[in-house]
Amino acid sequence: xxxxxxxxxxxxxxxxxxxxxxxxxxxxxxxxxxxxxxxxxxxxxxxxxxxxxxxxxxxxxxxxxxxxxxxxxxxxxxxxxxxxxxxxxxxxxxxxxxxxxxxxxxxxxxxxxxxxxxxxxxxxxxxxxxxxxxxxxxxxxxxxxxxxxxxxxxxxxxxxxxxxxxxxxxxxxxxxxxxxxxxxxxxxxxxxxxxxxxxxxxxxxxxxxxxxxxxxxxxxxxxxxxxxxxxxxxxxxxxxxxxxxxxxxxxxxxxxxxxxxxxxxxxxxxxxxxxxxxxxxxxxxxxxxxxxxxxxxxxxxxxxxxxxxxxxxxxxxxxxxxxxxxxxxxxxxxxxxxxxxxxxxxxxxxxxxxxxxxxxxxxxxxxxxxxxxxxxxxxxxxxxxxx
Length: 387
Fold this sequence. Notes:
Elements: H1 18-29, H2 34-39, E1 44-48, E2 54-57, H3 59-65, H4 78-82, H5 104-113, E3 118-128, E4 131-146, E5 149-158, H6 160-191, H7 197-226, E6 235-238, H8 239-251, E7 260-263, E8 271-274, H9 276-292, E9 299-307, E10 310-317, H10 323-326, H11 344-355, E11 359-365, E12 369-377, H12 380-386
Parallel strand pairs: 7-9
Antiparallel strand pairs: 1-2, 1-5, 3-4, 4-5, 6-8, 9-10, 10-12, 11-12
Helix pairs in contact: 6-7, 8-9, 9-11
């Protein structure tokens, strides 16, 4: 085998020959009543050899893969079985790409091979027939010795619903409750106020109420988007105008006081067909992320231009995004702002790719900081008609 094929950024790339894997599979399968016992467990169970290759699994994994027997997938690694988008980035497969350094599944398996029972959470993005899907798994890996051979037994628990519920609880009990509390306080002030200040208080309360409705609608849209139930309403959009609207939402925000928002004067105000509602969500999240990464006295810049029949929006902040953050950025549940967050960049990608026929990317450099790009077709209607 060529030396270049063994290159890895993390876990070893070497594999055991399939003939040896098949023999070990029979050994595991013949143990007591292993198959019938593990088939009765609702969660996925895998037994891996020292090269992290599958030698045994239970029925739930076969059902997930839509196959009747284990033979077609013997010797595969977990990410390859589940369709992880990073499993094909390196010749060595699952566990060997740069992104695998932060994969909870690989970490749990490697710790188990060191003799420890390990548990990690794993954020997994899969791609099947051009369609992407995000999962959150709880991975438990334990060492297993059979006939003087070392294996790893892996239990896979889908915790996607749990992570979603926790994230939504944080949003509703923190962000939305804060906005509702502001409205309540303003209403109480309004009751006790007369004169010219009353008009200002009423205007502020109305603004807070609109923000509350937007926050609730944003979560509703995201839930519908994940369930393929989101309705897209198309209309003409002017690129600079929708950027200016996004900037206006944050200009007087107390949280980002001291950070300047600058709309690039050379931006092209092009007319195109899209969903103003969803596009506004994406651009708002792009700008919010840039502001959260900036400090007092810094400037967040944004603009737009056209290229190859696409309108391209960009948002720049001077901070250099760490490499470990870059590798996990668009995964659901990942956040640099603490546990049980991480829906912002994920929703940007989901809405752009699944509903707006667009794409999200970013560029990081020491000189220019971090720049996000979102690009969309000039006429979404035409593309939808073709689909």
